[in-house]
Amino acid sequence: MQKLNFQSKARNLLALQSVLKSAKVLPCVITSLNKLKKDQKAELKKIKSLHAHTLIIRSSSKSEDSETHSNAGAFLSLANIKANDELALLDALKKVGASMPHEDDEILIQAMLTQIKLCGVAFSVDKDNLSPYFCIQYDKSGSNASITDGSAKELTSFFHYRSASLPKDKRLARIIILIKELERLFDSPFLDIEFAFAHFKNKEELFCLQVRPLVSKNKVNLFKSLPKEALSRFAKRFESLQSSRLGVYGKKAIFGVMPDWNPAEIIGLKPKRLALSLYKEIITDHIWAYQRDNYGYKNLRSHPLMHSFLGIAYIDVRLSFNSFIPKDLEANVAEKLANYYLSKLEKNPHLHDKIEFEIVFSSYDFNLSCKLAPLLEQGFNENELKRIEFSLLNLTNSIIDPKNGLYLKDIRKCKKLQTSFKKLEKSKISLIDKIYWAIEDCKRYGTLPFAGVARAAFVAMQMLNSLVAIGFLSKEEKALFLNSLQTISKKLSLASCNLNSSNKEAFLAHFGHLRAGTYNILSPRYDEAFELYFDEKQNKAQVNQEKPFKLSAKRLKKLDILLKENGLIINAKEFFEFLKTAIEGREELKFEFSKLLSLVLKLIEELGRHYDIAKEDLAHLDIKELLNLYSSLYSKSPKKRLLSQIAINKAEFELAQALKLPSLITDKEQIFSFFTPTLAPNFITQKSIIAHTALENEKELEGKIVLIYAADPGYDYLFSKNIAGFITCYGGANSHMAIRASELGLPAVIGVGEENFKKYLSAKKLRLECESELIFCL
Fold first, then answer.
1. pLDDT band per the 50, 70, 90 thresholds, residue 743
2. What is the pLDDT of residue 543?
3. Is the pLDDT at 148 greater than 60, yes or no?
4. CB distance 54 to 112 below 8 Å
5. Four-residue CA torsion sign, 522, 654, 273, 590
6. Which is more confidently placed, 142 or 35?
7. Among 282, 267, 295, which residue's Cα sits nearest to residue 595?
8. Whole-number CA gyration radius for the chain
9. For residue 15, which of 91, 182, 372, 417 sits 20 to 30 Å off, Cα-Cα?
10. pTM for the model
C-alpha cells in the first residue's frame, strides 16, 4: 500500500477520495485568489460541477495543518453559501482567501453536508501527552462546527484505550476503524480528524471532513508508557473488589474521585506519591472510619476508604455509603438503603460529587420526611422510613447536644495541637523522630477531631438548608447568617486586603504555614513565597458593610416549637450557636491541623537537604518509608533506600500521566473505554502557574490567567499578549483554543462550567495545577 504524505487540508482530502474505504470524502474543488484573478469564470465553472445547493468554503493554507503547527481556527471558513448566488459565492471566496497570508494559498470548496446526525473531532492519541487513547468528542445538535468553535453546550467525550477491543457502539467503532485506516495510509499514529455522520442517498454515512498531523513536537511522549498488562491487572483487581465484604452492605463496589473526602479536589486527580500517601495516612486509611464510628455511624474501622489505582486516587463509594448508615439501624433496612444509594448513583453518575446532598440520608433535618418519601417507590415501606428517620434523629441529637455534643469535645481536643506544634518545633530529637511524632499528633489531635467537627458542620448546613426548604428562613436570611460567621477564610481575606510593611510579619506569623496545595511539598508556603501569593500595592482595606443577622423573639419562639416538634433536644438560641460553632470550627480545625502537616513537609525538606535529595524527588516518596525508619533499622543507608523507592514511584507516576479513567467507575469495561460527564474540565499541559485573573476584554493581560466564556478561535489574539494561561466556561478538549494552548504549551482549563466560572471570576488570583487537575482561588 502506497504511503500518503501530508500536504494541505484540501490536498489531503483529495488524495483520500480514491483510497479511503472506511468513510466517504466529499468531492472538492481547490482554488486560490491567484487562480480567481487569472480566470474567475473557469474557477466558478469547477465549483458548479459539484452540483451542490449550498457550499462550505474553507481555508487550506500552507501555514496550517503541518506537523509543526496546526494554526487551528486561525483562518476563515464560511458555511451555508448558496451555490447559485454568484455574488455571495465570490464574496465568500475572497473573504476566505484574504484571511490567509498568501494569494496562492488554497481555498477548499465542498458541498455542505445536510441532515447531520452527529459530528465531531477525533484524535488518535491524547493531544497533550500522546498517551495511547482514541479521544473522540462529538455533538448531536446537527451543527457541523460546534465542537471546534466551542459553542456546543452538551458535548459527549469518549476515550478508548488503543489496544482494547472495538466499542459496542457501532458509530464509535466505525470512527475508530476510520482512524486506524488513516494511520495506515499516512503511516502516522498521531492524527487529528474531523468527521460527521449524515444521511446521504437514503443511508447514514460516515464522512471524513479533515485529517491533519497532530503536532507532537516538544510534547511529552507517553505513547508507550501504558502497557495493556497494567490495565488488565486493574480490571482483575476491580472485579475482585466487587465481592461482598465482611460487615459491609451493598451488592457491588463503585469507585469515584470526588465522593466523600473527594481526593480529586484535595490532592489532585494524579497526585505524586508523597501527597497521596500523606492523605491516606492522616485521613482516609483509618481516621475517617474511627470518627464516623464515634459519631454514631456504622463501624468500618480498618477499612481504607481510598484506593490508589495505578496512581489515581479513588474513593470506595460502597464503603462511603455504609459509613453514613446509623449503627443502630436494623441490618435488613441498612442493606436495602446501601443498595438504593448504589443504584441511584449508577443511574445518575453526574451526582458523584454531590452524594451527601443528592443521594444519602446522613442526618436528621426539618425536611427529612419529604426527602425520604421517594423511597416508597423503591421497595421501602412506611415502617422502614420511620425507622430510618428515628435512627437519624437519635444520631443527630447525640451530635448537636449543647452540653455533651461530640463536636464540642473534638474542638477542645484540637486545642492540644498548639502545645504539640511548639514542642515539636523546639525539640532536639532527630528529623525522623520529629516527622513520626508530628504525623501521630496530627492524626490524634488534628485530623481525628477535624473529621468529627466537619461532620457536625455538614449536619449544620443540612439543617440550615432545610429551614429554607420548609420556608422558615429565606435565602437572603440564610446568606446573612453565613455572612455573619467569623471563619478563617474571612479572617484571611480581611488580613490580606490590609497588608502593609508594618503588619506583614504578624500576618505571616499567623498564616505563613498555609500553601495552595496543603499536601504538596512542591507548593510553597505563604512565608516562603510571599510575593507569589500577595501584592501589597494592590491591597485595599475592605469596608465592613455586613447587615447583622437577627431573628425576632416571635420567630425564635416559633423555631423553639419547630425544634421540639421534630424531637430535637436543643432550643432556638442553642441551635444557632451550634450552627455557628460547627461551621466556624470546621475551618478553624483544618487551619490548626494544617500547621502540623506543613511542619511535616518542612521537616521532610530538611531531611532531603541532609541526604542531598532534591525536593522534586521527595515529592515521589511514600510517607510510609519515612515512618518505617522510626522503628526499623535496615542494612542499607536510609538515603539509598529512599532513592530506590523514589525511582519506583517516579515510574508509577509516569504511567499514571498516560492513564485516562472516568471520574466514576461502575463497570470494569470503563477501565478501557468510557464516556466523560458533560462539562468535565479539560486541563491543557502539565504545568503549574499562579497569576492574577483578567477577563478577555481587559487591556492589561500580560502575565495573567484570562477568563473566556467560550473556547472560540476568535480569541487567538490572546496568544500574542504573553498571558500566563486561560480558563473557559464552555468548550471541550478538542476545541481550537485547546489545540492551540496544547501546541504552545500554555496552561489552560477548558469547559469548567458556569458555576465554577462564576467562582473564578470573583477570584483576584488563581493557581492552576494542570498536572494534578486542580484550580485554587487565592
1. low
2. 46
3. no
4. yes
5. positive
6. 35
7. 282
8. 30
9. 91
10. 0.87
> Which backbone phi and psi does 404 adopt, to 5 degrees?
-120, 25
Q: Among 386-400, 634-648, 722-736, name the one with the lowest average pLDDT.
A: 722-736
pLDDT in tens, 472-513: 999 889 988 988 888 888 888 788 877 888 889 999 999 999
DSSP letter (8 states) at residue 280: I
| 28 bridge partner residues | 110
Convert the pLDDT of each residue in 574-615 to its tens digit: 999 999 999 999 999 999 999 999 999 999 999 999 999 999
For residue 616 the three cell numbers come to 522534586
Grid cell at residue 149: 468553535
736 classed as catalytic: yes
HEC secondary structure over 632-688: CCCCCCHHHHHHHHHHHHHHHHHHHHHCCCCCEECCHHHHCEEEECCCCCEEECCCE
What digits encode the pLDDT tens for the residues 503-524? 899 999 999 999 888 999 999 9
* Distance in angstroms (rounded) separating the CA atoms of residues 349 and 667: 12
**How far is it, in rounded angstroms, from Cα 653 to Cα 39?**
60
Q: Is 70:64 a contact under the CB 8 Å cutoff?
A: yes
Which residue is catalytic, options 160, 303, 307, 736? 736
Residues of the chain with pLDDT > 90, as a percent, come to 71
CA gap 600, 608 in Å, rounded: 12
Alpha-carbon gap, residue 158 to 676, rounded angstroms: 6
Measured CA distances, 239 to 270, 347, 665, 672 (Å): 22, 20, 11, 14
Cβ(31)–Cβ(107) under 8 Å?
yes
pLDDT attached to residue 734: 62
Whole-Å CA distances, 263 to 151, 255, 301, 442, 670: 31, 12, 20, 19, 20
DSSP 326: B
Nearest to 137 by CA among 109, 164, 156: 156
Average pLDDT, the chain: 91
The three-state secondary structure class of 171 is helix
Helix count and strand count (H, E) for the chain: 28, 21
User: What residue type is 272 in one-letter code?
Assistant: K
Question: Residue 72 burial by CB count (10 A; 0-12/13-18/19+): exposed, middle or buried?
Answer: buried
Q: Which residues pair with 156 in a beta bridge?
A: 138
Partners of 707 in beta bridges: 695, 727
Tell me what pLDDT residue 757 has: 86
Task: Provide the pLDDT confidence category of residue 159 given band limits of 50, 70 and 90.
Answer: very high
One-letter amino acid of 377: E
What does the alpha-carbon distance between residue 397 and residue 227 come to, in Å, rounded to a whole number?
A: 53
Closest CA to 288 of 435, 447, 424, 395: 447
Q: Are 677 and 757 in contact (CB under 8 A)?
A: no
* 312-316 sheet: strands from edge to edge: 306-309, 312-316, 255-256, 664-665
The continuous run of DSSP H or E covering 740 comes out as helix 736-744
